[in-house]
Amino acid sequence: MVDFTSKSNAALVANRAGLWAAPAALALTLAALPAFAGQENAGEIVVTATRAATPVSELTRSVTVVDEETVEREAKINRNLGDILSNTTPGFATSSEALSNFGQTLRGRDFLTLIDGVPQSTPLRGGSRDLNTIDPDAIERIEIVRGGTAAYGFGATGGLVNIITKRPEDGALKAKSEVGIRFSTDHPSDSMQYQTTHSLSGREGQVDFLAAGTFVSRNSIFDGDGDRIPPDSLGVQGGYADTDEWNFLGKLGFEPDANQRFELSANYFEFLQDTEYTFGLGNPAAGIKTPAVKGSPNVEEPGTENLMINGEYTHSAVLGSELAAQVYYGDITSRFGKFPGFAQTEVQSEKWGGRLTMQTPFKVADTDMKLLWGADYLRDETVQAGIDGPTIVPVMEQNAIAGFAELEIPVGEWGLVRGGVRYEDITVDIDSVTNRPGRFVQGGEISLQEALFNLNGVVYLSERSELYGGFSQGFSVADLGRVIRDSTTINNASEVASEAQLVDNYELGLRTANDWADGSVAVFFSESEKGTTYSTTNLNLVKAPEEIWGIEAALNVTPAPRWKLGGTATWMDGHVDLDSNGSYEEDLDNTRIPPLKLTAYVDYEVTEWWDARLQALYSGHREPFTTGAYRGDSDVYTLVDFYSSFDVGPGRLELGVDNLFNEDYFPVVNSAFNVAYAYNKGPGRMASLTYSIEW
């Protein structure tokens, strides 16, 4: 895993007591690290989530890259992508331990999830499956932009998660096969999971290809007490127990010359839950957790289905510019479990879109500048359809077109500045529907326009250290489908006059590296004047100004040959001003603001064919003062994982142990819910064995 931190505004963040003491101390520590010869080693890593391939030394934002090795290792411990990101990325809240990523925020706000640039989020009617629409075995790396961004459109007020799928191997035909098992150490037979992955790739002349498939079959999941966890630990949000999963990835590339590349890819993901259990009722006040009981109320199997088709064309020399063009199609279905007294439903979202990005270098007065510019188009048709009852959320069709431009200006030999603007025009057509209270809502149209700005810079303090600072904006809109579904006053959908939630983000960061250590530290502050929810009685936008601030840090050290150790730290807080009087009298709840999160690891290469790793995640206590829905406190817990790999015969044997010491704990989101049907503990100790061979 590689971490890069930058961008902030000192003045705003410094107003938050205590924020500067910690980063200042760490900054001094980082600055004391011995210099290494140039930036070549760091610069070899190129980040693409900022729309243009950018070397690390030129990054003006906080970015974390979770590389292929890290993804593969973490997946041997836990295949949940939410867990992988929580363990590796500063600013990411702890995992929900469920199929749903509800309550897992980035810097206290929503994030936009992309797969190869194709949006996975469903903002018109949230399905909260953004991180669980692809299997980890199909992932080459994950790039996380921390802090609001409009680089790829609305919804990224907290940041951006760009999942990049595996690429064809260069050279001759290569194949890899992998099989594995995973089980609870308390109930091996009832919890047994099976997994197999196979891939084939290669290149012949100007053509390359990749074909890969994964199958996972899971049984029941048990907590630290040895008790069965209900198949959906969050009620009806989506769970991992008693599921089958399939993922198929295919790519075909063609390079007619050194400047051009065409690539067509497709990924299909299906995740279905077939269970004989449902949830009973616990009692949070009495400390009684939610039991798993026999019975399945579902009419159809809950789960997720995602088909993504993507076409890309790149040309390194078009009219003096680098061109990247993309067209895509996405079809995502998120089917929820049936909640007693309500119909079972599923969110269906079908997307068509395209992106054009140009990077044009030019010179002004002997200064070499770059202009990044282009346009995006997205059509998204979304509905929450009833399965055993009427559809109470209408079909909504969104058409969005945006243009953007960002100018890069070098400042002598010691830094550079980037400033840009993005303008987005969104129209949403909403069909007529009879909603949940039985009210007929006439169809209508909603129009949104928003201009967003960013100004960021980097200062090269030395060959080893860089200081980043800047301002950026992100925006999002309310969950329109939910408003129409529950309103008792609306007559026409056009009455839902949404205003975009505009979020101002400020950040200041430092990163440094040498041949035996690298580290980063950043402070951040974000504020928004409007919320993204509505009053269900009068349909007025809930004016809920918010402020969120915090600090992030990461450190990796190689103290001796074969040894590596390090970790991350994330602390943040946030308040909301419910009556807009400037007092910010209430805390944001724990589904928005996670408690203190610390991670640590130590890695030892025993021999050339054997290595071992011990890692830990600490989640602290937070008791928010709020009158909102998610008022539960979070309790302290520490999760320790173990990983080891060995060369055995022609292949590799890997051992993973999740929750090594069988910690008995409630995940943060379950504690925040504090409801009888979702008061569930997290999974207990799980062990896995995987064997892989390349041939």
Properties at a glance:
695 residues, mainly beta, Maltoporin, Chain A, 22-stranded antiparallel barrel, disordered N terminus
The main β sheet shows up as: 22 strands, antiparallel, barrel
Query: How many domains in all?
Result: 1
How far apart, in Å, are the first and last alpha carbons? Answer: 27 Å
Low-confidence stretches: 2-44
Q: Give the oligomeric state of the chains in this entry, treating copies of one chain as homo and distinct chains as hetero.
A: single chain
**Number of separate strands:** 35
* Alpha-carbon Rg, integer: 24 Å
Shape: globular
Structural class by sheet pairing and helices: mainly beta
Query: What is the CATH H-level superfamily?
Result: TonB-dependent receptor, beta-barrel domain
Q: How large a portion of the residues is in β-strands, by DSSP E?
A: over 45%
Number of helices: 8
Overall pLDDT level: 89
CATH topology: Maltoporin, Chain A
Helical residue percent band: under 10%
What top-tier CATH class fits best? Mainly Beta
CATH architecture: Beta Barrel
